[in-house]
Amino acid sequence: MIESFRILLDNILRTAVTMGLFVIVLWVIHFVDTVLLHDALKKRFGLIPRAGFKPLSILISPFLHVNRGHLAANSIPLFVLGSLVLMQGQLVFWLTTFIIIVIAGLGIWLFGRSNTQHMGASGLILGYFGYTLTSVFFNPDLASIVVAVIVAVLYLGLIWQVVPLKKGVSTTGHLFGFLGGIVAYAYEAKVSLLGVTWDTLEAHGAVSRETVLEMAQGARRALSADLAVSVSGIAGPGGAMPGKPVGTVWIGLSAPGTSRPRAVGLPSRSPGRLPAHARTRLRLLYVLRNDPEAFPPCRQ
User: How would CATH label the architecture of 2-190?
Assistant: First the structure.
């Protein structure tokens, strides 16, 4: 009991120090840019929708702020919500941060208002907020529920930041940051809940034959089920990658009596036709239930 409390306290202290340094770095960047560089970083790396694709702007703009008031308003919620994610571990925190930044940045570049410049950590804050709410929804233990109630009381107003009510506020970045937090948790859930390895995700991506096979096997083990079906796809409007257009879907199945799990890749369709994939999934599951060897194993 005492040892567990000591470990928890040590984790809290290390988390507070790390997030404190994170926020301090933002203030140092702001001071250097404003006082020494005369806003050169903001002029060069502020993200402007569809004004030439600049990956560095997507990665750097969240760490730049218009003025001290902008940064001060972001500092406390960034520290609090970032700490909640960091408590899950360093790897989870930095991977989540990267995913949120990329999704928010791409969302701004694709859908932001033309001739506007976007910067600031508010999209990252909304991403941490979305991650926290999603994690509580899928893992509703007592501790996480208490944390969710505290977060809701303190920061429920953040949800209005995705609604375009105030001029000069990057609601596009807020919205896609929030969605990025949800996506980040879904990505990590494949590892923590279903046992998908990080090596598989890094090598093949979340939408792949290898990933759905591990998802199906993990789900069958975790639930002690006779059959398990998994699915991973790209619903759109964004998320397409080379060789994986919007509508790409992989389905994996695992069942007793089979020499190895099976997987099938379905051809891409428009997002409006994705319900057809659900029907396909049910048909494949029915066939496998009645004849485990009828569904051909994937080629290695």
Answer: Up-down Bundle (1.20)
